[in-house]
Amino acid sequence: MSVGTVWVYAEAVEGSVASITLEMLAKARDISDDVVAIVGGGGDALAAELGAHGAGSILATGDLSSALPGPAVAGAMAAAIDAGAAPVAILLGTTYGGRDVAGRLSVKLDASVITNIVDLTNDDGLVGTEPVFGGASLVKTKFTTAKPGIFLIRPKSFEASETGGSAASVTALALPDLGATGAATVTNSFVEQTVGPKLDEAAVVVSGGRGMGDADKYEMIEQLALALKAAPGASRAIVDAGWVPYSYQVGQTGKVVKPDVYIAAGISGATQHLVGMKGSKTIIAINKDSEAPIFGVADLGVIGDVHKVLPQLLEALANR
Amino acid sequence: TTQTAHMKVAVCVKQIPDPADPGALDPSTKTLKRDMKLILDESDSYGVEMALQLVDAAGGGEVTLISMAPNGEVNGLRTALAMGADKAILISDEALAGSDALGTAKVLAAAIARAEPDLVLTATESSDGYTGTVPEQIAELMGLPSVTFAKSIETTDTGINVKRQTEAGYDDVSCPMPCLVSVTAGVVEPRYPSFKGIMAAKSKPVDQLTVADLGIDAGSVGWAGAGQEIIAIEQAPVREAGEIIEDEGEAYLRIVAFLDELKVI
Ligand SMILES: Cc1cc2nc3c(=O)[nH]c(=O)nc-3n(C[C@H](O)[C@H](O)[C@H](O)COP(=O)(O)OP(=O)(O)OC[C@H]3O[C@@H](n4cnc5c(N)ncnc54)[C@H](O)[C@@H]3O)c2cc1C
Ligand SMILES: Nc1ncnc2c1ncn2[C@@H]1O[C@H](COP(=O)(O)O)[C@@H](O)[C@H]1O
User: Fold this and answer.
1) B135 CB less than 6 Å from ligand 2?
2) CB A31 within 8 Å of CB A120
3) Which of A108, B31, B44, B182 places its Cα 20 to 30 Å from the Cα of A56?
4) Measured distance CA(A73)–CA(A181) in Å, rounded
5) B191: pLDDT confidence band, cut at 50, 70 and 90?
6) Rounded to an integer, what distance in angstroms lies between the CA atom of residue A68 and that of residue A187?
7) Is the CB of B125 under 6 A from ligand 2?
8) Interval B93-113 mean pLDDT
9) Is A140–B231 a contact, with Cβ atoms under 8 angstroms apart?
10) Is A173 a residue whose pLDDT tops 90?
11) Cβ(B123) – ligand 2 distance below 6 Å
């Protein structure tokens, strides 16, 4: 049964619809037969892809030029709701933009936000599921008011799928005057180059942690990634230590990955790391501490020294 | 102090249960049990350090800590005061138990306003709650522009320039003050409190306020104001136990064979 109108905050990456948006559209279709995509920017370029994934229509603000999306998109959504639009739920991705929009919108509507959602079901009202304690327990939360339910959804929670729908029709979403709140402007964008496939799309991910010893030794992770056509990843400990850029980080505050194979070398398996990789199909861990929590999720666990095992592994792969 | 304040920074610091001792969810109230001494959330130590550095660079000013915590807790505040912050505002009130992120933001925003800051700093997310929405909620409540996920902050004549982390790298963002910035972990090296700092912290002012002091309706915060409720806590499906081997020089062969089975090589 359809719950009513569901809005999905649609984000774009390099001109196409972001994976998280496609994933949310699939879930939105599950619970509603009136799915509207909200775009902070021009809607036309995304209309075909959004339509093909189940958005019936698009509300687009038009060019935001150099403004950050938070105040603008939240302002536009709130204005539309004031003017009579009545979404039952508003789904946003746990992304830089999504979190900003959700926070601003929450104040404008004086409505709570349910965060870190990995599942959304309709059980006499919408219920969000949030993993806690590194995913060991699941907390189910409901809203207590009749206001639009703002849900922040974690990436890779749902499978994106196409409906074969035609391009969604685009309607303008008016941008209200943002006053001081809209004053932050982006003056430049920088892209950090990473090697190999994208971390959150790769079929194989090889991550290193503090157990690698020092920054130079991370090279073994990159070599193994190269040999396996994998993306190199990292725990937060070595991102904070400056060994690798933030874009390598896997976990709660980094990327969520779900590859076929995840290899963790010298990573303890803190709960915040586990929530970012526990969904991998197969997990291989190398750690010298037999008590390391990473072994609790490993399909193959090697109790050993990365400085011995990795060089041998690299050589064996090179000789094949 | 008699010195003119050049730059006033308010830093939100959450006091949380020690993550090394994670506690448990109380099945009767469905909240995290918090019966131990609270400590400064490590995520907020970066904001404190950033504030101290900015005030230093500005040639003077004032760093005010803002915290909402139960039972008049000051343990974490003392740590941040010992790092060098000048004073603190603590909001502690039984009416705040059960507050959601929006309720928390309402309280923090009202307290921050009292410090009349040029700049408000927060972490991007707390270590125990990690909703990540409180910063933007504060900014919106105060009518301020904001930049989230800052890797660095530099003051200019008219405001600040921020390197803001993005999916692909980072953006340069400029923003006038007053404004709010959330800072990511690991961007500055939080200083260790010196012995002198620890001693000085004991006599620094901590202004303790209630919900009524802030002029906030008790019904809009705490359990009464929370717009959501937990209806169930379930055990997640557990992963099947895997194969664990000890390396005696040949474990790499098992990894190679395993990757072979998985058709990765
Ligand atoms: C709010 C918050 C968010 C966070 N978000 C994230 C996140 O997104 N991602 C993340 O990863 N972390 C995150 N963390 C940090 C997390 O709690 C851990 O601190 C971090 O994951 C630890 O990284 P690590 O496993 O590399 O280091 P450690 O925990 O120090 O583990 C190193 C491991 O290496 C092993 N080791 C040492 N030497 C060797 C050797 N020679 N051979 C083999 N093994 C060896 C040790 O036995 C140990 O298990 C977050 C924390 C907080 C509070
Ligand atoms: N009770 C609190 N007291 C002070 N600051 C807080 C509190 N709750 C949240 N914050 C600030 O807001 C940030 C984000 O919190 P959260 O939205 O809970 O992830 C935290 O890292 C703090 O900087």
Assistant:
1) yes
2) yes
3) A108
4) 12
5) very high
6) 11
7) yes
8) 97
9) yes
10) yes
11) yes
pLDDT digits (tens, 9 = 90+) for A202-214: 999 999 999 999 9
ipTM of the complex: 0.94
Residues 85-124 of A with CB under 8 A from B: 94-96, 99-100, 102-104, 106-108, 110-116
C-alpha A301: how far from its chain's center?
27
Give whole-number Cα distances, B254 to A225, B193, B245, B257, in Å.
18, 49, 9, 5
Q: How confident is the model at residue B148 (pLDDT cuts 50, 70, 90)?
A: very high
Residue of A132, A137, A96, A68 lying closest to A255 (CA atoms): A96
Look up residue B253 and give its amino acid: L
CB A38 within 8 A of CB A77: yes
**Interval A26-50 mean pLDDT:** 97
Give per-residue pLDDT as tens, A40-70: 999 999 999 999 999 999 999 999 989 999 9
Q: Which runs of consecutive H residues, i.e. helices, occur in chain B?
A: 42-57, 75-83, 101-115, 134-142, 195-201, 222-225, 251-261
pLDDT for position B216: 96
The DSSP bridge partners found for residue A141 are: A128, B230
Q: What SS3 state is found at B158?
A: coil
pLDDT of B110 reads: 98
Output the average pLDDT for chain B: 93
Paired tokens of B88: 């603190």
Distance B122 CA to ligand 2 centre (A): 7
Distance between Cα A263 and ligand 1 center (Å): 14
Does B187 have pLDDT greater than 90? no
At position B183, the amino acid (one-letter code) is V
CA-closest residue to ligand 1 atom 48: A268
Return the pLDDT at B69. Answer: 97
Query: Mutating which of B148, B264, B265 best tests the A interface, going by the most A Cβ atoms within 10 A?
Result: B264
Question: Greatest CA separation found in chain B?
Answer: 73
Return phi, psi of residue B108, to 5°.
Answer: -65, -40
Among candidate residues A38, A50, A48, the one with its CA nearest the CA of residue A8: A38
